[in-house]
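sorry for the late reply, my laptop died twice this morning and i had to redo everyting from scratch. anyway the thing you sent over, i finally got around to it. pasting the sequence first so we're on the same page, its 455 residues, then the predicted structure underneath. double check i copied it right bc i was rushing
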Amino acid sequence: MKRIHSLLYYVVPVAYCLFISACTPTVKVQDPSAGNANFSKTIAIGGDFMAGYQDGALYAKGQRLSIPALLAEQFKQVGGSAFNQALMPDDTGLGLGATPWAPPFFTSFHLGYKTDCAGVTSLNPLNSVIPAGSASPYLTGIAGNSIQNIAVPFAPTAAYFNPAFGNSFSSGNRNPYYNRIASQPGISTIYGDAKAQNATFITAWLGMEDIFNYASNGGVGTSIPSSAVFAARLDSILGGLTANGAKGVIANIPDFRSFPFYTLVAWNAAVVTQSQADQLNGFWDTINGYTQIRFNPGPNGFIIPDATVPHGCRQLHNGEYLTLAVPIDSMKCYKYGVFIPQMNNRYALDSTEVYAIDEATNSYNAVIAQKAAQYNLALVDMHNYFNNVKSGIVWDGVSYNAAFVTGGFFSLDGYHPNQKGYALIANEFIKAINAKYQANVPAVYCTECSGILFP
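ok and here's the structure:
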């Protein structure tokens, strides 16, 4: 369906015709065009967001309505062709969730009623653990090398050159996703499979997992590669994929504060009365002598480990964050984070970790901008866009913001967008493509994209 934009442009000519003489103004709508780009063979590379991961899992409908798949449908109007994906084997929305820091597998989240430890029943995101023995349908590989969406959830840029990243889960690889699409599991690489496609157009979003695999687990168990290392890897990937003249588009990295996963649970959500504050202070002063920990009536910071302070723990302060992975019930009813044991470090981002994330985001974005210019790629400013979403945006008459559940943009895991959010992001890619290549790829209007479904 063609839409006519900027109708005000025609108000003056129409008024002139009515006043001067009888005439019929002609409104010309620009036809779809590839401009200077060639969309005849497209591929997508990246991590969670390009794969269509949402609600804490990868499932078929989410893949069919992922950013690259939505773009491919629009590219068909400007010379594009079929876009092959390795879809999960069901369309129920359950899918397969797996992260490097969580139990092996789980289903996607859905909204349902849950009674908490205080006996209060309310709507909550719910999911279930999938026993490894029941996950085999999701772990079956796809033969051949015809897959064009080569985005792999939780794959950092280092994984693009590592054949072992395609090993099976049963062999000890905690990430099951590349094994499904690898042309030769355990031998091929993500980069090699992408290059073998000999694409004419590349959609890329790289560097997210290098930073957010660290951030999502509270900085525990991993580190963020330096910007120099990231630049070298990005140079190898983009240099190889554009060697035959391919065009493309690449996105930069949002501020972690744009995601409710990092902001929904406040650092100072330990709200206590005067009596409770006295009790806690007595516990920490008299029994343990931890005088650096002090509670006051009202909001207080939770207690986290910190090897740099006396006794190895302290309270969170403003500018530090808790992730949505923190066990809420334990905080509500069992004084988790205010008594011993203190909160597990994997749920918290302290000031040192926040600084590392901010530095990496800024330096990676500088690298991405430089490489986009070097390889003549369109650049999508997702850093700015996610900040706009946080403030609130309107698309096609509908308001969206970053509020958890009610904002309309994010899925129930608080980090990945829902299908409507991915459609909005796809349109930002289209804007950048059209501007860079003098193209007219039509915007996405996804009527089947779902937001959060209420019971």
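Residues 351-374 form the longest helix (24 residues).
thats about all i looked at so far, will dig more tmrw
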